[in-house]
Automatic annotation (TrEMBL):
<keyword id="KW-0560">Oxidoreductase</keyword>
<feature type="domain" description="Alcohol dehydrogenase iron-type/glycerol dehydrogenase GldA">
    <location>
        <begin position="22"/>
        <end position="171"/>
    </location>
</feature>
<dbReference type="GO" id="GO:0004022">
    <property type="term" value="F:alcohol dehydrogenase (NAD+) activity"/>
</dbReference>
<dbReference type="Pfam" id="PF25137">
    <property type="entry name" value="ADH_Fe_C"/>
</dbReference>
<dbReference type="Pfam" id="PF00465">
    <property type="entry name" value="Fe-ADH"/>
</dbReference>
<dbReference type="InterPro" id="IPR001670">
    <property type="entry name" value="ADH_Fe/GldA"/>
</dbReference>
<dbReference type="InterPro" id="IPR018211">
    <property type="entry name" value="ADH_Fe_CS"/>
</dbReference>
<dbReference type="GO" id="GO:0046872">
    <property type="term" value="F:metal ion binding"/>
</dbReference>
<dbReference type="InterPro" id="IPR056798">
    <property type="entry name" value="ADH_Fe_C"/>
</dbReference>
<dbReference type="GO" id="GO:0005739">
    <property type="term" value="C:mitochondrion"/>
</dbReference>
<feature type="domain" description="Fe-containing alcohol dehydrogenase-like C-terminal">
    <location>
        <begin position="185"/>
        <end position="359"/>
    </location>
</feature>
<protein>
    <submittedName>
        <fullName>Dehydroquinate synthase-like protein</fullName>
    </submittedName>
</protein>
<dbReference type="InterPro" id="IPR039697">
    <property type="entry name" value="Alcohol_dehydrogenase_Fe"/>
</dbReference>
Length: 378
């Protein structure tokens, strides 16, 4: 039994323990210390090498924490490899005074911080207080899932309601250090979240679907503006808020995975070294066109057209296909990858990718449709 249905329109939104969300320029120096659970808290920083060595951001947070800084692990790689996660976990578990983890970066550091908290809970019965400082638009700070990559290259993860960070600090001055390609591609990842949550069969109408519509509209507009050179603090902040709106009202009671585009993203991402922002560029538009043939999904997808300045014709399938086309056009307008030519993926991997994404063996109806979609990426 699901908690939310479209016909009849009824549902439940089960909220998370997120207690504070600050946004705007200089939110980190203004609010970080006040967000710690106590004056005696000890915070451990989880981040990536690029942020630690190529920007002043990690050092800035270390200096703000001062005596409350318990250490930093700055070697989290793309897709959060389990070896690095193990190393960071060991450092945290050796210091019993640590009660807080501060993640700085995109999905990999944030997910790693969540996974470390999960592991600490398994041993101590207590989750770490998590303060997330995102520098991309991937929206990992919104979920109770923590993904990481096994030694065989396959993505896996853990989930628990208390893995959602308690505090999120969106700081436009931190976001200004993010490279253009990473910022834009993770923006497409946020669009992927918004649209797949919009047509998810158990998503609550309020607030999830309402905020997904606004998130998608804001991402379409804001990503184009950013690409055109508009990179002031308000533009960055609006995109950060759009990313939050794409997944921040997911809640804790959604049934199953987010959707097929995300499934394909996991099948293509860590096994072949493709960033998840790019996997969304590759798959989302095509998946939306495929979902247009499903009346229940198309009914939700077409709600986006007025937010894109277009009118509905009354033919939901054709209108939903139009949304898919607009997504593909956006990817090209942003100058992002729309096929696999820049990645080392052999065509012989098509059955492997299709099976991972669908969970089906060759011969099923969904398998055939997804196989054709994957073939089109070559």
């Amino acid at each position: 039994m699901t908690d939310a249905t479209s016909h009849p329109l009824s549902g439940l939104w089960a909220t998370t323990q997120l207690s504070k969300l600050y946004y705007g320029p200089s939110t980190v120096p203004k609010h970080l210390l006040d967000c710690l659970p106590s004056k005696s808290s000890k915070a451990f920083i989880i981040t990536g090498n690029s942020l630690a060595t190529k920007t002043p951001l990690v050092k800035q947070v270390e200096e703000l924490l001062a005596a409350q800084h318990a250490g930093t692990f700055s070697n989290i790689g793309e897709h959060a490899p389990v070896a690095q996660l193990d190393e960071a976990t060991d450092l945290v578990q050796k210091d019993a005074s640590i009660d807080t983890v501060v993640s700085i970066g995109g999905g990999s550091p944030i997910d790693s911080a969540k996974a470390i908290s999960y592991r600490v809970h398994e041993k101590s019965g207590k989750f770490l207080f998590h303060i997330a400082i995102p520098t991309t638009l991937s929206a990992s700070e919104c979920t109770m899932m923590a993904g990481f990559t096994q030694s065989d290259g396959v993505k896996t993860g853990v989930r628990a309601a208390y893995l959602v960070p308690s505090v999120v600090l969106y700081d436009a001055s931190f976001a200004s250090h993010t490279p253009e390609r990473l910022w834009l591609s993770t923006g497409m990842r946020a669009l992927d979240h918004a649209i797949e949550l919009l047509y998810h069969p158990t998503a609550p109408e309020m607030p999830a679907r309402w905020t997904c519509l606004q998130a998608a509209a804001s991402l379409f507009e804001g990503l184009r503006a950013y690409k055109a050179g508009k990179r002031d603090e308000d533009t960055l902040t609006k995109l950060q808020l759009a990313a939050f709106a794409s997944l921040g009202f997911l809640g804790t009671n959604l049934k199953g995975g987010l959707g097929l585009s995300h499934g394909l993203g996991y099948a293509l991402g860590s096994p072949y070294g493709i960033p998840h922002g790019i996997t969304s560029c590759l798959t989302l538009g095509h998946v939306v066109k495929l979902k247009a043939a499903e009346p229940s999904a198309a009914e939700q997808i077409v709600r986006l057209l007025p937010f894109l300045g277009e009118s509905r014709t009354g033919d939901d399938e054709k209108d939903a296909e139009k949304v898919g086309e607009r997504i593909l056009e956006l990817v090209k307008a942003l100058g992002l990858d729309h096929d696999l030519r820049n990645y080392e993926v052999d065509k012989g991997q098509i059955p492997v990718i299709t099976k991972r994404a669908t969970g089906q063996e060759e011969g099923g109806e969904l398998y055939g449709k997804v196989e054709k979609l994957v073939e089109g990426l070559f």
